[in-house]
Amino acid sequence: MVVCGDDGLAHRLAAELRGVYGEQVTLVVPPSGLRVRAPVVGRARAASAALLDRFVNATVNRGGGGTGVGDNGGSDGMSDERLVEAAEPTDAVLVEVGVARAAALALVYDDDETNIRAALNARRINPRIRLVLRLYNRRLGRHIEELLDQAAELSDGDTQGRGYPRADTSTTVLSDADTAAPALVATALVGTSKIVDTDGLMLRAVERHPPRPGEVADPGLCTLALLSATSNDPAGSDGSEDSGDQGPQMLPDAAAVAAATGRGTMVLEQVSYSGPPLSAVRAGVPPFASLFSQRLRWSLAGLAAAVVALAVVLTLVTEDHPLHATYVTLLDLFAINDPAHNDSMGRQILQLLSALVGLLLLPVMLAAVLEALGTFRTVSALRKPPRGLSRHVVLLGLGKIGTRVLTRLRELHIPVVCVEADPEARGMATARRLGVPVVLGDVMQEGVLEAAKIHRADALLALTSVDTTNLEAVLYGRALRADLRVVLRLYDDEFATAVYRTLRAAHPDAVTRSRSVSHLAAPAFAGAMMGRQILGAIPVERRVLLFAALTVGGHPQLEGKTLGEAFRAGAWRVLALDTAATRAAPGANGSGIWNGSGNAAGTGTGGVTAAGEPSGLVWDLPDTYVLRNEDRVVLGATRRGLAELLGRRGRGRPGR
């Protein structure tokens, strides 16, 4: 396996392949002077010590256990890793690291162009290699995936003709931002579902608090995990892999769920086809009412009422037809009628009043034009936070991760205020298109967070790539509001642990969470390198649960076994059967599945598609259903469990 990258994701992915799948890995990183950040040593600790000292001295005696999550890769042993330093993945570098003989190559540079160029070169060097690319641009990623797969199919056809065995030459394009965004949003918002939506398949999981006395917990479709014993305590620690029996239990069996009292659960609520992805929302013409202010609309209404009143009075005075009287009034209003020298006194007075109304109409019309132009101008400009805004989310940083999180929050109709120092940041165009208020300025400057209404916000998400910025924003936000829910991204694991414990001890009644993008994304990238379709990953406190779609054939742990026999607590569990790839029972219209004994298993489908057709996913299969080689199933698995399904021997506990 070869992994090429320039940030923490590359190091964590290499550690995942070594520690979980037992693979030998060659890691290609830039020279020390060109790296974005070292993966193990806590750089931010020295720069942020001054910010943390004032809290440590006051709370060190109260600090309890607990951990944070950093953005660095795990520091497993380096015995199975070969480290190569190269500024760019050129042809010579790819040949040197053995791409021509490698089974899989992961290109996880932060720059999309670098990954695409290296992928094209790698496919030319070794047409049979399995490629995993990290791309932020979704549309470009789909085109590149199709292009590389077509090249692999043509080359595979040539090698088949020469007697070579068929190889898995698939290309998988993933985005760490897309993987992490739903988890970050769910962490910041209480009760938000964790959703995995890929290739039209949607899985939704939600955390549920333990039932009160006399209440019965809704089990959902199945229980994915039992949360740690302290997860419902704001001052409790996020369960890690080393938290023992008090930590979260992944994929528990029925007995474990029944025996767990007072512990929250994460349950699966929905497995269905979501249909084609929605097109991007584009800024359109604002509604007519928004073009003019309320004061201007009242002024226009008053002038219109005056014109009607003048026309009615003129009709009564001159006994003229109402339409003709209205016409004469408009002529007087715009000063294009002849003077009423020889008319009655009443007619002359009405002409003077109409001229006066016409003079009042000119500034009102000018104001309307200026307001309309200003409205169209501000449609493409950045909005400022409204004065009465409250119970919103303050999002710090509009980079790759921040942009995806912003889009997800707006899809959930959550009010957001963004804070960004760079007016040319990647997510500025998205914020402008979605009409989200943005405060431009350095968060370390006084008054920036106040302008974002942090004192009335429900949560603060600090998602910049600078640890000191995230930490200072969280500390300042907590100083303004002690119960503010905060989610921060810290790179170094040891530093994140110290910060987490200190903040938890200083503010025991508030919720503090630290999340790592690479920690969430690395398992999906590693699974794709092993040649399996990883649908996505969701965080369960500090652990990760993977969702994968695979064919039963070739997996002895599943072949010919019933669902009850195939289920292994703490490792994997079959969640649904894809009837689109499975032979349905005759005459059942896809609503029943034939088990291995030829008996129909009466099951229901998992939902409908966007077009209103049956989704073809069967999620309530009986435990007696026998899995066949041609069955394609959707399963949830831990990292170690997926490695065991793939025939790899990991080095650790199976529950990871």
Automatic annotation (TrEMBL):
Transmembrane in keyword set: yes
PROSITE patterns: RCK_N
Pfam families for this protein: TrkA_N
Assigned keywords, A-Z: Ion channel, Ion transport, Membrane, Transmembrane, Transmembrane helix, Transport
Ranges that cross the membrane: 298-317, 349-374
Gene3D superfamilies: NAD(P)-binding Rossmann-like Domain (3.40.50.720)
The UniProt record lists the keyword Transmembrane helix: yes
The RCK N-terminal domain, residue ranges: 390-512
UniProt record, GO biological process: monoatomic ion transmembrane transport
Top-level taxon in the UniProt lineage: Bacteria
Protein name as annotated: Potassium channel family protein
Protein species of origin: Streptomyces incanus
Lineage: Bacteria, Bacillati, Actinomycetota, Actinomycetes, Kitasatosporales
